Amino acid sequence: MGNRSVLTYFIYILGASLLFFCVATAGSAAADTFVFGKRFGDHTYAGPFNLSKQTDQEAEVKLRSELLGMQDKLQADLVYQDTTFQMPTELVEYNPAATVEQAQSESENSLVATVSEDGLRTLLSQELPMLTISDSEIASIAAGISKKLETGIMPQSVTLTDYLESSQPTTEIATSSVAVNGFTRPMLDVLEELDGFQMKPKTPFSLLTFIDEVQPGLLEEDEQTILASALYSAALQTNFWVEDRTVRRALTEAVQPGFEAAINPNLGLDYVMTNPNDTSYTVHANWKDGSLNVSIEGLPLRYEYEPYVAETNKFKPKTVVQYSEDLLTGQVVVAEPGKDGFEIIVQRRIYEDGALLSTEPVSEDFYPPVSRVEQLPLIAPESSSNNDGQPSDSSGNSGPNDSNNSSGSGSSPIADGTNSNDDNSSSDNNSPDGTNSNGNDSSNNNSQNGSGGTNNSNSNGTNGSNTNKPSQNGGNSNGDSTANPDKKEPVYDKGGQLVE
After folding, report:
1. 155, 114 contact by CB (below 8 A)
2. What is the pTM of this model?
3. 181 & 122 share domain
4. Contact 394/344 with Cβ under 8 angstroms?
5. Where is there biased composition of kind Low complexity (predicted)?
6. Which pLDDT tens digit goes with each residue over 38-78?
7. Biggest alpha carbon distance in the chain?
8. Between the CA of residue 456 and those of 309, 409, 453, what are the distances in Å?
């Protein structure tokens, strides 16, 4: 009985102690909260700043100090199409008290930042005077900037077009035209499909792919090149990126030098451009009154782009001379008149509010010259006549039908009977006896008596044919030997044996 009473008293005492401890602890926490405010637990952050185990008062003091240093390093870049500018730090205000008040213990919390709408309106009207921004758009942009700055991480980039309303007016930012008499029906269908085409942000546009989808294999190469050149000329008036562009060896008719973009499906020559902006742009294309017209429409750009031909260098063609046996002495035929070559250097001026900011290089196109080709007659060999009226060479051999006449450019017989050739190629010349004589190759023909084979010339009789028969006087069998009218001429067979 006594032991049970002791146990009961012990339980009463323990319960009373726990109750007193809890009341004391709660009272202390309440007093601490009442006097010092709430205290954050572990892993409590406001932006990048650690507020763990700090009271709200301590946290607010710390944030004021940290944000003061961060304000000097604040960087918020405002991006609009082809321009980027920084927002002044004085337009942004961080609120440490509001940050601590809404902060949750043991969690990651955002900083509370506000952007001055009046200051932002003034800034945008100065930096983007071509836009008309409504009050609702100003409020939306300010809220978007504040949201970016809540993290406390710098630098931040804010795309302004994300907050502009769809009712924002558009404008024609580029135009181009090429004089063309007319197009084929398939080409007119391509222009109809291209008119109103939306160039999406940061997406390449391939003209060759577009044509293949609309009129595969039905367009003439010149028509495709003219359209690509018009698009290229328009793109140079914008901040669009030209990803792929080629020129021909000869400038396409009707295309302005320096602004050609060749299309060749067989060679895979394409024209590719990309819209680098954050909104879509619309391409318009049509053929009207003998002119191909191309334009690009969308939100206005900050800068104006003016491409121009800065320099043109001309290259005269070389003259190539060809020799022909079909031409008479003194006759000259121009087979190809030739064309000048060109180098066209294109640059681009960039303006802001009418003031020139910079000049940048665009392209250097080269069109090689086409050589002039002239055809001249073969050069006639120098010769003299003997007493019989037959032309003879310097060795006394007569040969009106020499089969070793040289043809080609610059070849002529010399005193020892060998051909003198320059480095130019020569053409074959047929002698009357049917023997081909090559200006670059001559053959030796030795008579049986061992006379004269070193001069590379053929031993010819008056009939103009080659002979291997020994002459009656044992020398060269040439047309200048004197015949005895009273003596019968010997007769030989094909093997050269005397038969009579």
Report:
1. no
2. 0.68
3. no
4. no
5. 383-468
6. 789 999 998 899 999 999 899 989 998 888 888 778 899 99
7. 188
8. 62, 20, 6
